């Protein structure tokens, strides 16, 4: 096949068009997820209809069902999107060999920031409210959100254990302890016991959790 300048130009133009189309679709998806999240949090999961989401975000039922399959699929996508933002900070290949205290601090701050975002506060409130009526929905939420975060942190702790930085027979359980210390701050906000912490308060809470996690509370 003879590669002519015209053919090269056509291929480059096709790639540019494809990239632009992909970018528009991604932006459109993000806008839809954001609008859907707002409606879910305002009206609750059970009371929210696809029509209400379309009224807020635009588009059509056909597009939503083609991409997400159902209202439950749309809500699960919101959860997965939020979890991905957190887990992107815990790429094993990037943190292997780094100081564990620094890794836990960075993870804890990112987790705290995510937990205190309006999106996660809304998701947790829906999960608590709808747990009995929609158990599959709540199970999917846990597996995609808290469960994934704990599992990823457990991988980090496995590396730390192999390096001799910690001693832990069950890294998944130990990871759950750390995530639980961070999540306690979220529960207080969900139950309206306090407003979301300031940046300084959040950093202090994370530092305390890291210290207790690594050193315990008994005097040495």
From TrEMBL:
Keywords: DNA-binding, Transcription, Transcription regulation. The keyword Transmembrane helix does not apply. Pfam families: TetR_C_7 (PF14246), TetR_N (PF00440). Transmembrane segments: none annotated. GO terms for molecular function: DNA-binding transcription factor activity; transcription cis-regulatory region binding. It comes from the Bacteria. Residues 49-68 bind DNA. InterPro entries: Homeodomain-like_sf, HTH-type_TetR-like_transc_reg, HTH_TetR, Tet_transcr_reg_TetR-rel_C_sf, TetR_C_Proteobacteria. Residues 26-86 form the HTH tetR-type domain. SUPFAM superfamilies: Homeodomain-like (SSF46689), Tetracyclin repressor-like, C-terminal domain (SSF48498). The keyword Acetylation does not apply. This is TetR/AcrR family transcriptional regulator. The lineage of its organism: Bacteria, Pseudomonadati, Pseudomonadota, Alphaproteobacteria, Hyphomicrobiales.
């Amino acid at each position: 096949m003879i590669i002519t300048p015209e053919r090269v130009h056509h291929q480059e133009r096709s790639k540019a068009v494809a990239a632009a189309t992909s970018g528009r679709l991604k932006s459109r998806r993000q806008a839809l997820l954001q609008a859907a999240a707002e409606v879910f949090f305002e009206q609750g999961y059970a009371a929210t209809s696809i029509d209400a989401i379309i009224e807020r975000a635009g588009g059509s039922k056909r597009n939503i069902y083609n991409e997400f399959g159902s209202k439950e699929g749309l809500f699960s996508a919101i959860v997965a999107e939020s979890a991905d933002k957190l887990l992107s900070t815990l790429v094993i290949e990037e943190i292997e060999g780094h100081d564990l205290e620094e890794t836990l601090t960075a993870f804890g701050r990112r987790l705290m920031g995510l937990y205190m975002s309006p999106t996660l506060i809304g998701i947790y409130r829906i999960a608590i409210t709808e747990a009995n009526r929609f158990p599959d929905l709540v199970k999917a939420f846990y597996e995609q959100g808290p469960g994934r975060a704990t599992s990823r942190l457990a991988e980090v702790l496995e590396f730390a254990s192999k390096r001799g930085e910690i001693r832990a027979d069950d890294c998944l359980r130990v990871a759950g302890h750390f995530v639980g210390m961070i999540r306690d701050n979220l529960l207080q906000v969900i139950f309206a016991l306090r407003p979301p912490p300031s940046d300084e308060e959040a950093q202090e809470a994370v530092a305390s959790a890291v210290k207790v996690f690594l050193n315990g509370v008994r005097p040495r």
